Inverse folding.
């Protein structure tokens, strides 16, 4: 098998996702991609929430160091997960 054929043979974007000979992804491949995308989106939301909670735990001196008032930190900390 030559190099080009090897690269084409192993061309999958996600684990468990395989391309059909026509180059189209099957149902399982699309499902894996959807679940993976949702997991990344949820991880992003949770990371943002952790950052907001960290703001609420900071002291006034720490907030002053980063240029945020207690009021701004509280306003940011109580925002909804998806905002």
């Amino acid at each position: 098998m030559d190099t080009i054929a090897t690269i084409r043979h192993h061309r999958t974007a996600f684990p468990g996702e395989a391309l059909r000979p026509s180059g189209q992804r099957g149902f399982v491949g699309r499902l894996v991609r959807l679940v993976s995308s949702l997991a990344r989106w949820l991880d992003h939301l949770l990371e943002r929430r952790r950052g907001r909670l960290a703001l609420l735990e900071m002291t006034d001196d720490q907030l002053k160091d980063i240029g945020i008032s207690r009021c701004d930190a509280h306003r940011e900390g109580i925002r909804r997960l998806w905002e």
